[in-house]
Amino acid sequence: MSDLLLRDGPLSGTKIAVLVESDYFEPEIHYYHRRFAEEGAEVRFLTRLWGQPEITFHGHEWRAPFTARESVEGISDAELRSYAAVIVPSGMVSDRLRYTEDVNELAPAVDLLRRAFQEPGVLKGVICHGFWLLAPIPQTIRGRKVACHNNLVGDVRNMGAEYVDADVVIDGDDLVTGRTGMHAHLFARQIIDMLTDRRVAA
């Protein structure tokens, strides 16, 4: 779902991927949908489509429908690098996307994140319960400073990350993390600023 008119802005020509699934947090996802477009960025909502052309999910708060038409599967390295940022949102999105039929294989969304963490040019954003998607690949955040929901502090510490008691944390120049979906505006602001700084530097 990426049908908004894009404003001419500092992120014009930039693509941002946001993962989505059932029980998404409506205020957060709807905010990203509009806020990044205000800066000129094109937002692509990715999910596992299970061979279907599209899937309509329903939110956690009000059961609001949201249709996704782009898959996390089959994304080439070149296509992955075409995204300026990949965002793992709050809610139950990560728990649903980390499902795998074979427990010895990474779920497609987990594998996409694993590859994204190998690309320093792709900014990674993880907020609230988004860390569930990284649980099968703890090496991605081992030794890194992160913020997360209070309920996941033990999880991120067990993954080897350094928990920081803050609403938003920046670690290096390619990782932004946030406390909860209610902090999505602060989280998005940091992502916008970092992507803008990258473009100015380039």
Strand content: 15-25%
Q: How many discrete structural domains?
A: 1
Strand order of the largest sheet: 5-2-1-6-7-11-10
Helicity, in percent?
25-40%
Whole-angstrom Rg:
16 Å
| Low-confidence spans | none
Rounded mean pLDDT is: 96
CATH architecture field: 3-Layer(aba) Sandwich
Look at the structure and give the CATH class: Alpha Beta
Describe the structure.
- Helix content is 28%, strand content 21%.
- The protein is α/β, with parallel strands linked by helices and 202 residues long.
- The strands form three sheets. It has a seven-stranded mixed sheet, with helices on both faces.
- β10 (168-171) and β11 (175-178) form a beta hairpin.
Write the layout of secondary structure elements.
Elements: E1 15-19, H1 26-38, E2 42-47, E3 55-58, E4 65-68, E5 70-71, H2 77-81, E6 85-88, H3 93-97, H4 108-116, E7 123-127, E8 145-146, H5 153-158, E9 162-163, E10 168-171, E11 175-178, H6 184-201
